[in-house]
Amino acid sequence: MGYPVHHIDAHPWISVQDMYDILAETLSYRRSYGGSLDALADVFADMGAYLFGGDPAATGTVLAIAGFDTLPAIDSRTAHVILGAFARQARLTGRTAIPCCAWSDS
Fold this sequence. Notes:
Layout: E1 5-9, H1 16-27, H2 37-48, E2 62-66, H3 70-74, H4 76-91, H5 93-96, E3 100-103
Parallel strand pairs: 1-2, 2-3
């Protein structure tokens, strides 16, 4: 399909900070760049502009998170906001081209 795919395994997360650390590492942005839900929204927008995490020559970028059900057990508000950000990106995909998905193995 022409999409670089970033796979993240959320199973080992024990804190929201773990989520931010793994996202920064996986998507290749400075950890100091984000550490809040507002900053994470900026991260997704910058991915859409191909500032990091993607290839401008590609069709888009996919962020796939396995074991996402780990996050609501840690912080349900953060999990809901992240899913809302994914839904927002899905509505904007024609413009930003960042399909996002999260799934649970349970």
